[in-house]
Write a sequence for this structure.
């Protein structure tokens, strides 16, 4: 019997610390482990006893790349507990800041973490030696996203302006005016990004995935919607825990999520795209078709095009919000503290992010539950590797290892969120 | 360091959110120039390339929370000529140092069904508790302009210009009216280390201490002010116990309000 092991001890170009281990017997993968070494930080434990006002500031610290997602899921869950709904321009401003985070986070991944795999570079800096203009465009596009977050949030990482009920301070029309020109440039840069990513070499690899995302009747989802799948799931967020289960596995400090009776599922840009294509802006839909995509895409390597499409959509959506903006009279609506439980799910750049809190009548958190997108994708990533490796076993070892890393990076895993860490290890015996 | 060879930069991660090292990639206008001055020899979040030690400059993010990391930091120190900690986790233990005040076994069982699989230390500690540190950059997160200043100071063999006064001075500089005096909003600015640029007061909220204690802060006096504004004793405990909970002056002040 011919056995071999593929090992990557420390997976690069992902957020956090993890590794990869694949064991092959003859032509069959017998074991795949996405090892998560990221040291646990116990957020759900130390949130107990904190005041609800602190929750968006504390949960932001789970992830430096997508703090807005944590703040958005936290404030919506607490507002659900208190029975209030943030609407009108405050709601629009929340969508705007989320657009900023999608642009910043997706552009980071497309240009700096994922594209170097397709073009054969160790990193974006080496890529810049041959493709200087492209990398500079990526950096400037990322900056557009960061400018939105900084203006509305106060700073790019761990913004300070989001609170339960709205914001601490809302911008005037004048303060937002400068963003318009930048976003128009961003829209053009996003279109070029789509054209550029569509020309990349994609392995022939399609899977029949179970996609899960939010769906809203009137818009591409950010903060609201029902949880739907491509296999008949259609539930309100309040039923999340009736349908999804978190499991602990020995090789990972991150918990794994599964859909009861159905198993592993896929969240993030690919899932959103497949379940909400009709809600993308007309320009993004047209760009998708021009890039050769149909409304259904099952090749995870093409997620780089789909992230680029979502950057374009986010620029379009941000421009729409800006054109209709009138400063609200109050920066936040009042939060009527009461003893209650509440939950929310929002679309982080990497997929649905679920929060639930139980709060007492003084506003103290009694219990917190947080399910980050990456822990929901871990099983699908392991499944992809077990399907992918046998097709490419003839590749030399370093090349095969690199392709495996690329297959993991298709998901833009954020191990800092899921706990925090990733390493690759292919065992061929 | 020879004049022809570029200094080698390494970036290391311990328990953290990745935000401080992301600050380097957030230097959209300076990144490619910086890469021209330095060889990025080890930066897993950005590159697969791995250049062997020794490194001229190591940036360390995150706190020490596992037995393995307590060993690893010594390897990093041995491999580095200069070692600079970036951010509140590496400099003060971070938000995860809230475990230092509780029973970590209870924390593990709240999050994980099978606690035996989890390897963790009972305390989250800053890098300087384990190895010699050449410079500490504050903040949760750090300020990217300060990061560029620190790297450039290192490249030019000079002392970084990162003032150690309080956030109050930064408010005065940007002409922000004092939120505590004018609106009665509780603010940690008077005892908090400068560096963020006094963002919160300019957004009508009080400082909440991301950069940790300034040099010789009068925390007791500030607590008395807060009590005068109607803040309860048990709330003061939490105020000093957040992202820099284990930093000496904040830890001691929080303990004064523990009953």
């Amino acid at each position: 019997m011919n056995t071999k092991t593929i090992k990557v001890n420390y997976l690069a170009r992902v957020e956090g610390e993890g590794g990869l281990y694949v064991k092959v017997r003859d032509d069959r993968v017998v074991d795949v482990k996405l090892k998560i070494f990221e040291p646990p930080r116990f957020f759900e434990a130390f949130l107990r006893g904190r005041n609800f006002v602190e929750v968006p500031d504390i949960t932001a610290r789970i992830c430096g790349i997508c703090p807005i997602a944590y703040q958005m899921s936290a404030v919506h869950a607490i507002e659900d507990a208190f029975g209030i709904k943030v609407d009108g321009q405050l709601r629009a401003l929340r969508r705007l800041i989320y657009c900023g985070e999608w642009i910043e986070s997706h552009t980071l991944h497309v240009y700096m973490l994922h594209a170097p795999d397709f073009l054969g570079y160790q990193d974006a800096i080496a890529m810049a030696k041959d493709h200087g203009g492209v990398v500079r465009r990526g950096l400037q596009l990322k900056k557009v996203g960061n400018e939105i977050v900084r203006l509305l949030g106060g700073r790019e990482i761990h913004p300070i302006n989001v609170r339960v009920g709205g914001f601490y301070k809302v911008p005037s029309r004048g303060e937002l005016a400068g963003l318009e020109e930048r976003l128009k440039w961003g829209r053009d840069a996003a279109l070029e990004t789509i054209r550029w990513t569509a020309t990349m070499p994609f392995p022939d690899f399609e899977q029949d995935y179970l996609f899960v995302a939010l769906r809203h009747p009137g818009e591409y989802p950010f903060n609201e919607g029902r949880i739907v799948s491509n296999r008949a799931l259609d539930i309100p967020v309040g039923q999340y825990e009736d349908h999804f289960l978190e499991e602990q596995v020995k090789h990972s400090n991150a918990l794994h999520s599964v859909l009861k009776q159905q198993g592993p599922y896929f969240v993030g840009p690919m899932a959103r795209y497949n379940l909400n294509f009709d809600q993308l802006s007309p320009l993004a839909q047209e760009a998708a078709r021009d890039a050769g995509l149909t409304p259904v895409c099952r090749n995870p390597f093409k997620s780089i095009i789909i992230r680029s499409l979502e950057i374009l959509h986010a620029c379009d959506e941000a421009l729409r919000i800006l054109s209709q903006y009138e400063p609200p009279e109050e920066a936040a609506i009042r939060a009527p503290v009461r003893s209650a439980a509440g939950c929310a799910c929002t679309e982080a750049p990497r997929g649905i992010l679920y929060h639930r809190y139980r709060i007492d009548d003084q506003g103290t958190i009694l219990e917190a539950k947080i399910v980050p997108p990456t822990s929901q994708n871990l099983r699908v990533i392991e499944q992809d590797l077990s399907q992918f490796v046998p097709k490419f076993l003839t590749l030399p070892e370093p090349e095969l290892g690199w392709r495996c890393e690329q297959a993991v990076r298709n998901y833009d895993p954020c191990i800092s969120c899921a706990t925090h860490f990733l390493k690759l290890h292919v065992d061929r015996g | 360091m020879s004049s022809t060879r570029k200094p080698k930069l390494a970036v290391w991660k311990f328990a953290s959110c990745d935000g401080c090292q992301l600050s380097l990639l957030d230097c959209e206008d300076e990144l490619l120039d910086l890469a021209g001055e330095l060889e990025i020899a080890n930066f897993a979040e950005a590159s697969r390339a791995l250049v062997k030690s020794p490194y001229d400059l190591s940036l360390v993010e995150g706190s020490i929370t596992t037995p393995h990391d307590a060993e690893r930091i010594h390897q990093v120190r041995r491999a580095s000529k200069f070692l600079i900690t970036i951010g509140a986790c590496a400099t003060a233990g971070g938000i995860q140092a809230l475990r230092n005040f509780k029973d970590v076994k209870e924390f593990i069982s709240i999050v994980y069904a099978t606690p035996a699989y989890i390897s963790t230390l009972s305390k989250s500690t800053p890098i300087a508790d384990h190895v010699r540190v050449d410079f500490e950059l504050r903040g949760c997160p750090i300020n990217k302009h300060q990061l560029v200043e620190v790297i450039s100071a290192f490249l030019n063999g000079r002392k970084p210009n990162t003032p150690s006064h309080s956030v109050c001075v930064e408010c005065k500089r940007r002409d922000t009216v004092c939120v505590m005096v004018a609106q009665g909003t509780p603010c940690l600015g008077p005892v908090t280390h400068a560096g963020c640029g006094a963002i919160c007061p300019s957004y009508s909220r009080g400082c909440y201490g991301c950069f940790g204690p300034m040099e010789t802060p009068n925390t007791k006096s500030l607590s008395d002010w807060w009590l005068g504004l109607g803040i309860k004793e048990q709330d003061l405990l939490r105020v000093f116990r957040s992202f820099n909970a284990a930093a000496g002056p904040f830890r001691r002040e929080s303990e004064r309000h523990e009953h």
The CA atoms of residues 145 and 208 of chain B lie 21 Å apart. Chain B has two domains: 8-155, 167-256.
